[in-house]
Amino acid sequence: RRLLLLGEGNFSFAAALCGAAGTRIVATCYESEEVASGRGGAAENLARLREGGAEVLFSVDCGKLKDYFLPEKREFDCIYFNFPHCGRKAGVVKNRELLARFFHSAAEVLAEEGEVHVALCNGQGGTPADQPRREWHNSWQIVAVAAGAGFILSNVHPFEAETIQGYQCTGYRSQDKSFCVAGALNHIFTRSTPPPEFKPVSCQIELDRRKASFQVPQVLVDKINRGFLEINSKHPVRTVKEKLTTELSQAFPVQNTDSCLSLLHQSHFNGVCHSNIFWISLSPEVTPSTEETSNGLTSTVSFSHVDFCRDTDQNGWVSVEERGHLSNQYCLRPSLLPYAQAIVRRGVFVPGTLHVLSGPVFRQCLISPYSMPVFHEMVCVCAVNRGSEDGCIQTLVSNIKTTIDSLQQTLSASRLSISLQEATNIETAELNDFAAFESQLSKIQYFICMETEGSGSSGKGSCVGVVRTTLYEQGSSDVVAVFVSLNLDLLAMLLCRISDWRMLWAPDTRFLHQFPQGQLRLFKSFSLYPPSYMHDVSFWLPDGGQFDEAAFHTIARQVSGEAVTSIQLLDRFQQSETGRQSLCYRLTFQSWDRALSCQEVAEMQLLFRKQIEQRLGVTLR
Fold first, then answer.
1. Domain range list for the chain
2. How do beta strands 24-28 and 55-57 pair?
3. What class has domain 201-285+299-306+328-513?
4. 410-438: pLDDT as tens digits
5. Any one cellular component term from GO for this entry (predicted)?
6. Which end of the chain offers a freer environment for a tag, N or C, measured as fewer CB atoms within 10 Å?
């Protein structure tokens, strides 16, 4: 391992590391050799370094690191910068600027999988790890500064100077004097995945024995065909699905029918708001010129752009081509329930057989940690003789409980319990977005809820499934079909203690590495204390006061690449003279898996303002 040490005062830290097996050290300081050698103990430490084969450099500026190393010698595995400071009585702003220059420079000489270690005195970093914690404006804001250079904080732990043999801190106010390092913290940064680039993507499908193409809505281009449920997948969502299927097969003959399910659905969902559905227009007559993209999908250049426009009935926002053809209109499937209902209507299965359907479904929804525009649904359907449906429901839910208990055996955390609650006993306001949408599809008998044992409250994200029953006539007898719909993503989140749905879709390999061979484990964030940024936007509504909040949230998702974590209505105002209405919203930007800089967020906000003006017809204030 090649280690680069910056800002060494008396080189005591470098001397302590010198001689460690498998390491090659390059120790540097900002001062000249003459000045550095005059510090207490420096001469002895320098002699030890040189005897140990370390390289020593003087007059090194931490903001210009690539100037001191040839290209083939820039790949350092670890860069240490202990207690950086501009010197003398420099304030927090100057030291933030120093850190910014350093992080940008470090990115140019760090190996791809390398680490940057920055030790700061207690309170300087501005993270919750500092005790006591300074006010944000009075700190060095190290995580936000590092994000500007593409780094995330992956670990933080005490800087224990007493455990480093021979180490003596020096340099207080640019003098050969020590300073207090009690409570100091070592911040470990790693590279973030780069900002996402969303290229237009089209999917080719076959409908009624004819090939057709459709352009994927931009907000979903990084979520189509991710293969979470495929055989070779190690994703926790697949683990949950397989465990459930295995347990259910102990009580029912199980038949999986995933492969024949179409990604598109041509139907009107009675009772479902149009704004909650991703509408698609097909172009069977178009043969687009294509090129392969990195994710294996097809990128088309001849497809017209999919955008939001109002349908002819003014029922809401639909996603259609700019040509405006509303014939042959399809939507990305918002549920697998219609496919399960079709199985029962065909009457081609043996009563008592459990048909299991699973796959991604797509819903436009408001932004929140548990509101998912795409998730993996699992629908179990079983037809039984009339009067036997209660026993079938109890058996299904009992097997789900057994599966959850089994999965929790490897998770050392407070246990979760599954309960079956009658739909009539739950107020609409208590439902999470998954349950609220399911309520629009058709009548629900029971909600399947998950909660922490002893909490006494189900919580906002606790509804993980719903149970429905429908009576069908088959010949001379009546059968009752029992449908159980489960949100696999939400189950995986609650089991692994994943606080935000976006983490399930993170492209960073550090996510899946936490689940070797598909084993469920408690998730540990690899990006600690990510910075958040708030921006407000105020606008006049168009004439008539029509405003689609779901479309507003979807545009925020698009322009930010899912970096908006919340949208809060701050104010609603109506002008007495004209009756015009104005809304003011606050957007909070934060990413849990990649670096997000202040400048990047400012650009997102500007683009968001332009997009809502163009696509929603509002007038910015």
1. 2-191, 201-285+299-306+328-513, 533-620
2. parallel
3. alpha beta
4. 786 678 888 888 888 777 767 888 888 89
5. mitochondrial matrix
6. C
